[in-house]
Predict the 3D structure of the following.
Amino acid sequence: MPSTKKKSSFASHVRDEVVQEHAKDQTEYGQNFSELPGGMDGVAQICEAKFDVFKSGNNEGEFYWYCAGSIVEVADTEKHGRYIGDRTSLTIPVCDTTNRSGITTPQSDHVKNIMNEMRKLDIPTDEVATAADLEDLCEVLLEAEPYFRFSTTRSEPTKEFPNPRTWHNWHGRRDLDGYAPPDTNGAVQTEEPSATEEPTEELSLSELAEKADTNDVPSQEELSKLALEAGVTQKDIDEASSWGAVAQMTETGKSSEEETETEDQDEGDEDWSPSKGDVVFYKPKGKRKAISCEVTAVYNGKETCNLKNLDDGSTIYKSVPWDKVSVE
């Protein structure tokens, strides 16, 4: 990995063997601490990453790694919305450290944690061979500006630490492929954003269905809610051939399962189309190779489907075009 800019003295501070020791480690998802209220869950975007030197304290003159993200979304907007734009951050020493109990953490363990955090942000470390390479990754991280999930917890006061501390937990990017932060109306954008921003509650069922079929997430959620209130089951919604079919079931309160099965058979006579429960391969944005997914819903009208990542068992990919999936 070639050097991209003039280096600080950091590269001479860390032995290359220490970096090489952890370059190909398996990624672990842990926590670190700084300041923010506890009980937060949200998404942030990397805005700063650097190696610098402690200016005071027990580790004065030693290097540390600092990485920060600007908060772009919180789960509880009523309670934590005012913190959007603030930072969540990690500070990890790059030297041997000893806590108040006399337990020493070697430099190697700290370097291991730094490289692990980088991998959680989709910055590979397997080709890192020197401390200079590790420093270069800060520039790579800043250029990528990845989004990542985080949460915070608040510690109870103890004799050793009478003042409560807030712990920042960075959970990486494992389920944020294709993520875009909320727009000014609070609705999450998708890869195919709606052409209009009319409130969904002012639209008729047919208008909602038309917008839902363009991958407008708020319209899909609103139509699903209305269908459930009308007595349509979640199974019927998931298996509907299109959002227009969901709107029709909402009006009549009856399932269109037979109609959907007929449409599926007609489509199958012409070209391949996925069916609910199929195992297919899909390559999400930012991934190097395709992953195994289960088809959880099929929308024949738009020729899209919803997928569940079988590797982690939880990530959902919505409105994926049929031509983006394969069976082998």
